[in-house]
Amino acid sequence: MQMIRVGFIALVMLALAVVPVVANAIDEPFYVSLFTRMLVLAIAASSLNLVLGYGGMVSFGHAAYLGLGSYVVGIGFYHAANDGMDWALNGWMHLALAIIIPGLAALLIGAISLRTRGVYFIMITLAFSQMLYYFFIGLERYGGDDGLSLWYLSDFGSVMDLNDDSQLYYLAYGLLLLVLFILYRLVNSRFGMVVRGAKSNERRLMAVGFPTYRYRLVAFGISGAICGVAGFLMANQSEFVSTSEMHWVHSGDLIVMVVLGGMGTLFGPVLGAVGFLMLEQYLPELMEGVCHIIGGSSCGIAGEYWKMVFGPLLILIVLFARGGIDGLLQGKVGRNV
Amino acid sequence: MSEALTIEGLVKQFGGLTATDHLSLSVTKGEVHAVIGPNGAGKTTLIGQLTGEITPDAGTVRFAGRDVTGLAVHRRSMLGLARSFQITNVLADFTARANVALAVQAHQGHSFRFWRKAATDQRLIGPAEEHLATVGLADRAGVTASSLSHGEQRQLELAMALATRPAMLLLDEPMAGMGPEDSARMVEILKRLKGDLTILLVEHDMDAVFALADRITVLVYGRAIATGSPEQIRNDPDVRAAYLGEESADA
Amino acid sequence: MNWILLIEQTLNGLQLGLLLFLLAAGLTLVFGIMDLVNLAHGSLYMVGAYFAATFTAWTGSFVLAVVLTLPATLLVGAVVEVVCLRTLYDRDHLDQVLATFGLILFFNELVRLVWGPAGLSVPLPEFLSNSLELAPGLIYPSYRLAIIIASLLAAFFLYWLVARTRIGMLIRAGASNREMVGALGVNIRFLFTIVFGLGAALAGLAGLMAAPISTVEIGMGENVLILAFVVIVIGGIGSIRGAFVSALLIGLIDTVGRAFLPDVIGGFFDDEFADAAAPALASMSIYLLMAVILAFRPEGLFSARNG
Amino acid sequence: MLKRTITLAAGAAMLATTAMAADPVKIGFVTTLSKGPAVLGRDMRDAADLAMEHIGARMGGRDVEIIYKDDEINPGIGKKVTDELVQKDRVDFVTGYIWSHVLLASYKSVIGNGPMLISANAGPSQIAGELCNEDFFSTSWQNDQTPEAMGEVLNQLGIKSIYVMAPNYAAGKNMVAGVERTYKGEILGKDFTKWPDQIDFSAELAKARAAKPGAVFVFYPGGAGVQFLKQYAQAGLKETIPLYTVFTVDAISLPVVKDLAVGSLATQMWSPDLDNAANRKFVDGFKAKYGRFPSFYAAQSYDAIMLIKAGVDAVNGDTSDKAGMRAAMKKADFGSVRGDYTYGNNNFPIQNFYLREAIKNDAGEYTVKTAKTVFTAHQDSYHSKCPMN
To answer: Which tens digits make up the pLDDT trace of A73-119?
Structure first.
């Protein structure tokens, strides 16, 4: 099984590497933006995976860090466009701030949230993300809930041009590989052992002498920072920043991606993000097709009800395929894998 | 006379129930001091207060010459106070080696080390395997903890406690749930450790207690009704009445 | 300060708080007893409101609709419990969050399929459509008073059920020790189905009470769901008393914030800033409250053990 | 903008080679088809379908195909489906768009990439001003116009003071700003309520009552409008303080709230009782086919299809002749259901605004009737910021 798993993951990563080449060859540029979205969400889901999958901290508010990262780009653009502050478009600065600000926010939120346990933790992370959501809705200057259309993207000078979809794609792909490599080192380091140990049995870790709180907190901060990178990319990909990316349902989507792909595995969230967006894209068409095959009437609208299939599918995954896609590849089916 | 651990006037109440009632007790360096008592005597509550998981309502705990009453769990561990749990409490999805390595890691400075792989770090693995050997688990190092037998998990508990290089061990019923064979092996292991370490042993298995203990304190309803050598305790009429009553009646 | 207005706003806050309690009561019951995080509680609230709309249209009577809606949502809840949630009790909260998240998606589409995309309306019952003058100058809609009374009745009923009855005894025992109740010869699975059904009926009650003052539409449960969670988390999960206190607290803070914050901020800063800051602050106030309370009391105001 | 020019060139080349008479004219239609506001999307889609029926699904001698997409009221999703329509389905026009934020997010995906964009509802100030483009047309209004008309109504009626309520989000603030711009009386109080999850307005209504204004002005679209109207009536305010609204009382909310809204006044650039041939055909056709009154969302969507037809007809189906289509569309002589109107430099309509009163008609249906004309040939106030002539 291990062979199949490694092969499959390698295949997915390789396929992702050639998306722009293929899409441009067959003249279907739409796939570049669709797959860029997948890469971006794969980074966000990977960041969540660090706390959720490896650290056992069920954060129901990661959309907030995604939003903060994208607002770094949006606010930079706003001042460049309206106040003539050209330097505010500097891509390196965007990237750096999109790491620092969400990271600090996560440290702050984590510092309070990690005092709580279980459902309280789920709910307090949710509450903080809702607070940020309403905060940005009230920020009229930066568009409120209308958001900001970005007429200029993050500027990397002659290094790269994000207006070119392929270049943006490979930036996202490169950053995803980098994030995965960093996470790989991180979870296997001494630090990672403490974080994973605290998921498994926090009481024991404290008894052997670990102040687990601060390790979990740092993991939470790192996770927020990585999620901010995804936000930076998302703003440049959609050429738009908006509060709706910060809504709690979006945090739920990120959790779904992590679990769909496989929690606590390195590539699980990547598979999850790809799978999630594939379902979002093709489940409606699939349903329409099935509707036609079984000879239903008004099949044109069948696809609009795709969530009616997606919802129960999610339940089935929780009940029977707990390891997600990655777990299935390892041949693990059933409950407690 | 050097005391490793001194407890003075310790009180802990849960609602109306007094679990620890003005308890005073001292453990001398190097001795094995057993605490026995019937169910509900407050033994586990006592251990909890010693490790810092439970905050006492009154009284002091002194360890290695300093007052640790208000100190957090991990700080006491750093001072050299290690514990094993009554209910097996290991990291179920880690290997035995990784379990002990984590305990070793806890006492090698901070763990904000983000890059080097822990699983191949000889500074962790070396000591970990030593401690596994001490408790007789050398050949089980690569097995996931949840796949170990109950007795082996208890041994692993002990290895983790040892890996923190403690000055003193708090053993909360190390023989709980073990068969006679496993118990005997554990007694052997503990005998080997005796002398190097101060041990506070809470245990139901009287054979083990009398085989290991230098001194015994009998706890009833949170109070120490007697402290003394195994011989003294065996012959103490109060203890016989309160605790050993039935057994001595048979004898 | 206008005293009539202050009293009226306090009454408004009380009324909102009690409505929130109604919303949260079923959630905290299910949560506290079965340790189940049920995100689909909002969906049951929505289903309750749709039932109320349909039954009111059929029978022409709000009271009859109430009589029909409660057992109907109880039944829906029981079916959901048996089909889907039963297997989730011994799972961790993450699994429960995900599965019930899936249920939300399902219910939204199901409702759209059955009732169509257009919102429905429940007219006020005739006998409650007037306003009462509680004091000179203090006019209050009688339906709002009906919400207050219904919520208080529900609170009392829950208190009585949990504290005073044999079922309540079993529920409390089942919460702390499932095996023990099983050993007593009680069918614990059936008991849980009943409790979940009861929680669903409470959600349905909240939905039908809210229906005449709001829009019955798809997704109406998702926003109130978060509010309900804030209520039970502040109150202490599983504690009915905690939910009651925190619902009132939130209702009052939210209402008073909306009513007086713009003036207060306007007193210190210029109007433009007050226009922007006050509503944002009012929106964030309950989440701020929750963060502050959890920072100091990580298990909420009332821990379930004492509640 | 390297990407823009490249795709534009590629798009033009593609259009030139594939725009054969045999291929249908493709129109992408982005609206909300799920969640609460799906009811608005349904009205828009029904109206577009009706328009297709009325034109025999033909424009400029070619077949026409409409591809509907759901934006889930989410700008991210809206942008994604717009990308898909433009890049994958290669539509000639994109229309629909209820929400300003969805339109703003999707704007860049269409403009400059080949197709033309026709907003059938949203009219954010940015697009009327600095972001205006020759490939964009509106068949609705600029957001501020309707409340500006309302402010004028209040002046004309001699109302000395008002109390204002709107949700705390961008459109809500625009609506309030619009009224403030034209209204000359005193604004006694202003409340921006939590959006979207405020279930109870009693705190604000109590304040409004205590302020004793001459009128209350509100903007609550969709389900929130139903909720507001109910609570307004239940608080006993319906009898005491007249209510003036924008985008709150319409063919969507009226059948739901019924009598509670009767008598309330709203401004709009269209009304089902406007007396012109196109409107009669539209309203009667809509009622016959769907059994209900059309909303302004429907009217604007119907017009959007008709506007596109005018463009495609003018170039005889050669959709690569964009200049020809633009010129034809700019004339706005396709027979709008709102009567004649013209386009300003920013391609937003210069049109009349009417005061509509909610009524129960003789047939027992709830609808609106035109009370008076507030503005004639009114132009939005952002057109001067638009660099186009």
So the answer is: 999 999 998 888 888 999 999 999 999 999 999 999 999 999 998 88
Q: Tell me how far CA of residue B215 lies from CA of A30, B28, B42, B207, B222, in angstroms.
A: 79, 9, 19, 14, 18
Q: Cα distance from B249 to chain A (closest Cα, Å)?
A: 41
Question: Would you place residue C304 in the very low, low, confident or very high pLDDT band (cuts 50, 70, 90)?
Answer: low
Predicted TM-score (pTM) of the model is 0.89
- Using a CB–CB cut-off of 8 Å, the residues of B that contact A are 51, 53, 72-74, 77-78, 82-83, 85, 89-94, 98, 101-103, 105-107, 111-119, 121, 124, 160-161, 163-164
Give tens-digit pLDDT for C25-84. Answer: 888 888 877 788 899 999 999 999 999 999 999 998 999 999 999 999 999 999 999 998
Nearest to A234 by CA among A130, A98, A136, A143: A98
Interface of D with C in 16-55 (CB under 8 A): 33-36, 38-39, 41-42
Structure confidence at residue C174 (pLDDT): 64
CA distance linking residue C110 with residue A314, whole number of Å: 16
Determine which of C215, C231, C254, C285 to mutate to test the interface with D (most D C-beta atoms within 10 Å). C215
Residue B148 lies in a domain: yes
Residue A234, pLDDT above cutoff 80: yes
Q: Topology of domain D2-141+275-340, per CATH? A: Rossmann fold (3.40.50)
Task: Answer yes or no: do A116 and C299 touch at CB < 8 A.
Answer: yes
**Three-class SS state of C135:** strand
Residue C280 with chain D: CB contacts under 8 Å: 168
The bridge status of strand D243-245 relative to strand D215-218 is parallel
Q: What percent of chain C has pLDDT over 70?
A: 93
Write the pLDDT tens digit of every residue in B115-146. Answer: 889 888 999 999 999 999 999 899 999 999 99
Task: Please state the rounded mean pLDDT for residues B39-64.
Answer: 87
Outline where chain C has alpha helix (H).
Answer: 3-34, 41-59, 62-80, 93-115, 142-164, 166-176, 178-183, 188-210, 220-235, 240-268, 271-296
- Determine the residue of chain A that is closest to D14 in CA distance: A27
The verdict on residue B187 lying in a domain is no
User: Do B62 and B128 belong to one domain?
Assistant: no
- Lowest mean pLDDT across B230-234, C1-5, D372-376: C1-5
Beta-sheet pairing, A148-149 with A240-241: antiparallel
Work out the minimum CA distance from D170 to partner chain C, whole angstroms: 11
- Domain of residue B144: give its range: 90-165
CATH class, A2-329 region: mainly alpha
Nearest chain A Cα distance for residue C110, angstroms: 7
Name the β-bridge partners of B109.
Answer: none
Work out the average pLDDT over A161-168: 93
Question: pLDDT above 90 covers what percent of chain D?
Answer: 70
- Give me the DSSP letters along A6-57: HHHHHHHHHHHHTHHHHHHHTT-THHHHHHHHHHHHHHHHHHHHIIIIIT--
Please name the member of A185, A206, A208 whose beta carbon is closest to the beta carbon of B160: A208
Q: How far apart are CA D279 and CA A68, in angstroms?
A: 47
B37 and B74, same domain (yes or no): yes
**B225-B227-B232 Cα angle (round to 5):** 110
Q: What ipTM, to 2 d.p.?
A: 0.86
Is B119–A188 a contact, with Cβ atoms under 8 angstroms apart? yes
Residue D161, Cβ neighbours under 10 Å: how many?
Answer: 16
Band of residue C129 on the pLDDT scale cut at 50, 70, 90 = confident
CATH superfamily of D145-268+354-383: Response regulator (3.40.50.2300)
